[in-house]
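User: I'm putting together a small comparison set for a docking exercise, and I want a reference complex before I start. The sequence is below, and the ligand is D-MYO-inositol-1,4,5-triphosphate. Could you produce the 3D structure with the ligand included, as structure tokens?
Assistant: Of course. I'll restate your input first, then give the structure tokens for the complex.
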Amino acid sequence: SIADISAGNHIATEKGEYLNKAKIADGGKKLRKNWTSTWVVLDGKKLLFYKESKQQALTNLKPGCKPESVDLCGAQIEWTSEKSSRKNVFQITTTSGSEFLLQSDKNATISEWYEAIKLEIESQSKG
Ligand code: I3P
């Protein structure tokens, strides 16, 4: 699904959707897995994870309510069947050593996200 996000005078068309997310490493350090449903936006080189609802993410530009921003530059993406008992899971590993699992029960949804993020990563590596 496509969401129009308005930020002041800047209007960007971005892809946004609820996905299940688990951060399993931060700066190379393993974390205890904790799946949460998160509003995810692909914003060019960045993947944004919003703690609040979609509606708040779309309208809420208050300071201090920033999403978690993941730098996709140099990141790796791969399907994994070993990191979770869930189906449809892929992993993103950042250059800073953070690891995220993203999951959806809907095959089409998760495939779309995998392809979109992969394209973004590949377009960057070509400079
Ligand atoms: C974890 C929780 C996760 C599960 C994980 C468990 O237990 O059940 O949902 O991951 O499995 O350890 P807890 O809540 O006590 O931390 P999946 O749903 O992805 O399988 P794991 O240890 O095999 O990663």
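The CA atoms of residues 1 and 15 lie 6 Å apart. The helical segments are 54-59, 107-125.
User: Thanks, that's exactly what I needed.
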